[in-house]
TrEMBL record:
This is Fe2OG dioxygenase domain-containing protein. The keyword Oxidoreductase applies. GO terms for molecular function: metal ion binding; oxidoreductase activity. Belongs to the iron/ascorbate-dependent oxidoreductase family.
Length: 334
């Protein structure tokens, strides 16, 4: 990792010591990543239109989950998708860069230093002009998933901002044209991709997994093998992070809603790819519904302002991750 990148991380770590946030963003040199896609080859970064068009030729319409269904509905999600089994990530500095980013993310999100984060590729997404993804939450594939890491590959484009919201606050992540942009957020955050206005936006989405713990001094716990992060450890970590955020924001504890059954994996027939994460979009409760995802008036293509976004909030609570929701007493899943 270069000097500049190290300085940037140090600054980020320092700043975030004081306050864990629900989303964070880090930029890194594009030289850190070598990304190869089956049928296209190694992607030259920054991406240019001819290569991006080759990616689209290899992609399929992206899907999402709603209730028991898996849908490809371009009024909700309009983007191209390449599955992770067709992507190879590498480069001499990639592992070190990613691990530095994950350290920064862990600290910025207010997770304790004993948490070890891992990022697992989920999909390569290509958004052309007018393409978008309406507000939604990402589902967790297992207990260790705590959030999402979106790696935007550098490309010339306008629009296509990633807007992440939680407890009445929103942050907007605009991808760099020259650098890799890493945006991370907790799994309970509502987020959307605004319509791309020009050019192409290309992202690699990754599941953020909290896999094991290590002692604050950097040594492994004696006698412990790496494995899933114990639930209770994650509960405590998230509870502290949540309290910190709530006391800093003055935000009230979110209301509780009844639990809903889990849904089936969102890739029927295809078999769940490794690291599959489901996308769930849920209409708001009746009475608060300004637009519906199915039937009746629809939300405009990606034009949800904050009010509309609120109206489309999922029927479940903000919660850090599946492991943490027991903290709040409810297993609510879309
Ligand atoms: O492309 C992005 O920035 C985010 C995509 C997304 O939200 C998802 O795949 O769940
Ligand atoms: Fe998402």
């Amino acid at each position: 990792m270069g000097h500049g990148a190290r300085k940037q991380l140090a600054k980020l770590l320092d700043a975030s010591e004081r306050c864990g946030d629900f989303s964070t963003r880090i930029e890194m040199s594009a030289r850190a990543l070598r990304i190869e896609v089956d049928g296209v080859g190694v992607l030259p970064l920054p991406l240019r239109a001819p290569v991006t068009k080759k990616l689209i030729a290899q992609a399929r319409q992206a899907r999402f989950g709603r209730g028991e269904q898996t849908l490809a509905d371009t009024s909700v999600r309009d983007t191209w998708e390449i599955t992770p089994d067709r992507i190879t990530l590498g480069g001499p500095d990639w592992d070190r860069t990613l691990s530095g980013v994950l350290d920064g993310v862990r600290t910025a999100l207010g997770l304790p230093p004993t948490t070890v984060l891992r990022a697992e590729p989920h999909a390569l997404l290509v958004y052309g002009k007018g393409q978008f993804f309406l507000p939604h939450q990402d589902s967790e594939k297992d207990d260790s998933m705590v959030g999402t890491l979106v790696v935007s590959l550098p490309s010339h484009h306008t629009g296509g901002e990633l807007v992440v919201s939680h407890a009445g606050r929103s942050v907007v992540h605009q991808a760099s044209r020259e650098k890799l942009t890493f945006a991370a957020f907790y799994a309970d955050c509502l987020h959307e991709v605004k319509p791309v206005k020009s050019g192409y936006r290309v992202t690699l989405t990754m599941n953020l997994l909290a896999e094991r713990t290590r002692p604050a001094g950097g040594r492994r716990w004696p006698g412990r093998r790496p494995g899933p992060l114990p639930d209770r450890t994650l509960h405590r970590a998230g509870r502290r992070a949540l309290r910190l955020r709530q006391s800093e924001n003055g935000a009230p504890e979110p209301p509780r809603v009844p639990s809903r059954p889990r849904v089936h994996p969102a890739w029927p027939g295809l078999g769940p790819p490794q690291g599959c994460r489901r996308h769930a979009c849920h209409p708001a409760p009746p009475g608060r519904r300004a637009g519906r995802l199915r039937g009746g008036p629809r939300i405009g293509r990606g034009e949800g302002d904050l009010g509309r976004r609120t109206a489309l909030r999922p029927l479940r609570l903000p919660r850090r991750c599946r492991a943490l929701r027991r903290l709040r007493g409810r297993g609510v899943r879309g």
